[in-house]
Each structure stands twice: as C-alpha cells, then as structure tokens.
Amino acid sequence: MIPKGTVKRIMKQNTDMNVSAESVVKIVEILQEYIVTTTRLAEENAAKDKRKTIKARDVENCDGERVRQKILEVADRTEKVQILTKEFLKVLSSELTREE
Q1: Which of 16, 37, 43, 83 is deepest in the core (most CB within 10 A)?
Q2: pTM for this model (two decimals)
C-alpha cells in the first residue's frame, strides 16, 4: 500500500490549492494500478530474455502506449475525478509521450 501521507505531501508541494482526502485516495489508486501495469509489462520484458528477475531496463523498456492507455482507462472509470488527479494524469501521460 502506498502511504497516503506521502502522496498528500507530494501533492501539496506541487500546488497552492487545498488537497482533499478523496483526491489523495484517488491518486493512490491510480498509482497502484500504474505500478501493477508497469510491473506486468516489465515481467513480459524479463521473460523475453528468459530471466526470473525484473531489472531496471525491463521497466524502462515498457511499452509507453500500453501504460498510457491504462492510465486513461483509470481516468475514464472515475466519474468525479478531482482536478489534481486529472492534472496528474495529463502530466504522466505527456511524460510517457515525450520518452518515446
């Protein structure tokens, strides 16, 4: 479980707005799904090399498009996403686009 206090602190460091407990919970959920998706993709990369250990390069070589689609999927499922969560998704998605 990702510590909510840490997430809230990071959020507060990056905005002058108040941060609701609900927005923290949503971002924690999104981060957890992001980690799960990235881990599965990294696992596939390691398996292609016939390894049982996920290495940094496996994470770095994750298919950005599939990860981006998963992030947008999470956003679409959430009916009332807070502004900060939407902004987080936009930034994350744009970062993935730039890396490719």
Answers
A1: 37
A2: 0.63
